[in-house]
Amino acid sequence: MASHTPAANPASRPQPAPAYSSTGLDVWTMMNQVSASVNAVNLGQGYMSFPPRDFIKRAAQEAFIEDTHNQYAPPRGRPRLLAQLATRFAEKLRRPIDPGSEVSVHAGANEALLSIFTAFLEHGKNHEAILIEPAFDQYTPNVLMAGGKPLYVPLRISASKDPAVDSISSDDWKLDIDELEAVITANTRILVLNTPHNPVGKVFTRGELEAIAAVAQRHNLLVISDEVYEHLTYGIEHISIATLPGMWERT
Fold first, then answer.
1. Is the pLDDT assigned to residue 8 strictly greater than 70?
2. Collapsed DSSP state (helix, strand, coil) of residue 190
3. What is the pTM of this model?
4. Cα first-last separation, the chain
């Protein structure tokens, strides 16, 4: 007589860890679904309305047919790419950069962020990371997956502005340094700084960055400086906090 094992109750099957199962859909997925359901124009994600430049397409084609390019790439990136990135950022940050020890290539900023959180936050240690709100929606789940605890500090609209009657620019959003310092505990290890800021577009000034740097140095914090929009400042000077005195080693 044939027999079979009954299907397991879904509740008895292996389940993902809480850090993963508790996270919901990301904002892009939600916006894509909502906009598609009502046939709306979706401005929530940067879909390109133009193809890549011809020289980029030619370089990709040449890489495919080059016989020396069909092996696994080094995990940190190909040496020529690392050298080019070191040259580019040495010019921007005004200091020599060693491509062998100070540059790595990741599959997008999200992987880079998770790698850093995983390296500096430990499960079971109650390590904390400060996030400035509103914030890129991937910061919180990345901190949680790395075993950390997110702490939130808001950007606030300047007291001289009334949102009900005034036009609010990106520069009208301010970080209260006292409020930032008040959330720091002995377990706080990381401060995430996003400039230009997503989503409000704020470009932090040198004075604001110096105040943040002073807090980071007083409390021995690592600063993760997310500068993915560094070229979208519309004439405002973008300054990397890594260029400030004492900040290269902790950024």
1. no
2. strand
3. 0.86
4. 68
